[in-house]
Design brief:
Layout: H1 3-21, E1 27-32, H2 35-51, E2 56-60, E3 88-96, H3 100-112, E4 117-125, E5 137-141, E6 149-153, E7 162-166
Helix pairs in contact: 1-2
Length: 167
């Protein structure tokens, strides 16, 4: 996926989010660091272009909540300054694979408060789920082998926008 197609996917996802939620009232974005955080910002910017309203965007480090990776020195804490009670949270990740990162992010959200609803947006869904997690909004489904890797590059951190299968 080149930069043009990546931007097209983000635009389509933004329109789908608007349609499903009948606007942006009480909608907040929570991007899973690192790639999901940048994508959440881009989706919010795209919604500003389309609708004239930019939802709040928060960045979430799901690492401390993972059950499959031990991370020393990072505490499980509610997200500071994030008010999700009664709101629709759009949880954003760059690549959805086993579902374990999303599960960890959901644990972090639940420790923060009770959202009215949580919807999942993923730029790439590569399959191979280990948990019953399904995205509400998908940029592109990319079937992969387990030994392959999806590389999402964004100009926020890389030289160009694009998605590649490596491996």
């Amino acid at each position: 996926m080149d930069g043009k197609n990546l931007n097209r996917s983000i635009t389509r996802m933004a329109h789908e989010i608007l349609e499903r939620n009948k606007g942006l009232d009480n909608v907040v974005f929570v991007g899973i660091k690192t790639g999901g955080a940048y994508l959440a910002e881009r989706l919010a910017d795209k919604l500003l272009d389309i609708e004239g309203v930019r939802p709040q965007v928060y960045h979430l480090d799901a690492g401390p909540y993972r059950d499959d990776v031990q991370i020393e020195g990072r505490e499980r804490e509610p997200l500071k300054d994030l008010e999700i009670v009664g709101k629709t949270v759009i949880l954003v990740d760059d690549v959805l694979y086993t579902g374990r990162t999303v599960r960890a992010a959901l644990d972090a959200l639940m420790a923060t408060g009770r959202a009215r609803m949580v919807q999942l947006a993923a730029l790439i869904d590569r399959g191979h789920r280990e948990l019953p997690i399904r995205p509400d909004f998908v940029g592109k489904n990319v079937p992969t082998a387990r030994d392959e890797f999806i590389s999402v590059e964004l100009t926020d951190t890389d030289d160009e926008d694009g998605v590649w299968i490596v491996g």
